[in-house]
């Protein structure tokens, strides 16, 4: 039924426009039953005599104008050009990042700071970020209690200065006028690094592991399993709905507080027996919480570094509320730990094959 519908459309197209037989019609006369696809690949159009129909005409002589008095005129475009502009790049990215040097889970304040510091320090690394939300930024679009300003305790203001985020100095801490100014600035910097690819609306559903006799649990983390978040939401984490994989010697996880997606990696480590149990985030104590999170951002199991609020779920550290220096510092520290890790291991095709000899 569908075929005959397609054939009749094809007939109408050719009957209106092409007296000479197309390659498809010629082959059809040979009894092969081939009809032209509704959307022929560009390479095919060279051999097919497509006469433009009314809705098929690209007005090539169209004048492109910037005229704000009612004459603003766009350059011409075909719908398939838009589709191909996106799919070609997305496909190339998927192909390229299937083996990455570092995968960052979560583009909140900690994950973005890690990506920034790592990409800046090491332009040779292929850094892939998976963010479950459509909008990267996690909780850092607002300050506490849904207010605008973001408080950052010194010395983490140095990170703000390095990234180029303006702030007001109030002595022991600084204030960014709007948390969104931090997030939008660091996001724009991260996305401009040629060695960073961000997949948003992409949830990490599972971790990839490899046997590793040198690990206390006999396994190491070796990448992530991802899926479009919509698919994950419809079918649940660790579903069998055709996920994608990204192989990497190192995963840096900043999945935030516990929640439907939050604290993803550390919960998965417990579920798979790589970590015994979660400490669960403790009550709020700004003074102790921020130092703790920065200083304890570390490789928690072989191949996986955790920081940000996800670490407080693992270690049972205090929460810190509306002060973000700990998140920035944790991301920065994770980047430093990641470089140490990559420099210390022999890596082949995205997999750790041993440690480098130390002099
Ligand atoms: C929407 C939101 C609003 C918040 N508002 C405030 C506030 O007003 N004041 C305050 O003090 N604190 C707020 N928080 C708390 C906030 O979590 C921390 O202050 C801080 O932002 C934590 O930083 P983080 O980078 O560790 O994690 P987050 O900022 O929570 O970022 C974690 C990121 O990881 C992503 N993620 C999680 N799991 C996965 C997965 N499996 N795959 C891919 N991506 C994943 C999330 O989508 C998120 O973007 C908010 C948190 C959220 C999520």
From TrEMBL:
It is an enzyme of class 2 (transferase). Binds 1 Fe cation per subunit. GO terms for biological process: thiamine biosynthetic process; thiazole biosynthetic process. Keywords: Cytoplasm, Iron, Metal-binding, NAD, Nucleus, Thiamine biosynthesis, Transferase. GO terms for cellular component: cytosol; nucleus. It catalyses: [ADP-thiazole synthase]-L-cysteine + glycine + NAD(+) = [ADP-thiazole synthase]-dehydroalanine + ADP-5-ethyl-4-methylthiazole-2-carboxylate + nicotinamide + 3 H2O + 2 H(+). Its cofactor is Fe cation. This is Thiamine thiazole synthase. The lineage of its organism: Eukaryota, Fungi, Dikarya, Basidiomycota, Agaricomycotina.
């Amino acid at each position: 039924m569908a075929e005959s519908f397609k054939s009749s459309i094809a007939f109408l197209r050719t009957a209106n426009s092409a007296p000479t037989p197309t390659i498809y019609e010629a082959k059809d006369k040979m009894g092969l039953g081939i009809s032209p696809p509704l959307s022929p690949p560009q390479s095919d159009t060279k051999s097919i005599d497509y006469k433009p129909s009314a809705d098929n005409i690209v007005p090539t002589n169209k004048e492109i104008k910037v005229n704000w008095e009612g004459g603003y005129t766009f350059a011409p475009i075909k719908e398939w050009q838009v589709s191909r502009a996106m799919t070609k790049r997305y496909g190339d990215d998927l192909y390229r990042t299937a083996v990455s040097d570092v995968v960052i889970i979560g583009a909140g304040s900690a994950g973005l700071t890690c990506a920034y510091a790592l990409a800046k320090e090491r332009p040779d690394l292929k850094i892939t970020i998976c963010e479950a939300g459509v909008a990267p930024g996690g909780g850092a679009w607002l300050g506490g209690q849904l207010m605008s300003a973001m408080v950052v305790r010194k010395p983490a203001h140095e990170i703000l200065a390095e990234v180029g985020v303006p702030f007001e100095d109030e002595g022991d801490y600084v204030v960014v006028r709007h948390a969104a100014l931090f997030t939008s600035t660091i996001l724009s910097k991260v996305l401009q690094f040629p060695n960073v690819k961000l997949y948003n609306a992409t949830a990490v559903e599972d971790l990839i592991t490899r046997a590793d006799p040198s690990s206390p649990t006999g396994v190491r983390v070796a990448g992530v399993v991802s899926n479009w978040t919509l698919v994950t939401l419809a079918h649940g984490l660790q579903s069998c709905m055709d996920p994608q994989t990204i192989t990497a010697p190192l995963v840096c996880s900043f999945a935030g507080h516990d929640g439907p997606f939050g604290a993803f990696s550390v919960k998965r480590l417990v579920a798979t027996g790589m970590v015994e149990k979660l400490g669960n985030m403790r009550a709020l104590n700004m003074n102790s919480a921020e130092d703790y999170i920065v200083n304890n951002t570390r490789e928690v199991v072989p191949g996986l570094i955790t920081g940000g609020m996800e670490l407080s779920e693992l270690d049972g550290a205090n929460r810190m509320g509306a002060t973000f220096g700990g998140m920035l510092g944790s991301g920065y520290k994770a980047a430093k730990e990641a470089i140490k890790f990559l420099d210390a291991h022999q890596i082949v095709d995205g997999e750790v094959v041993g440690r480098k000899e130390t002099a």
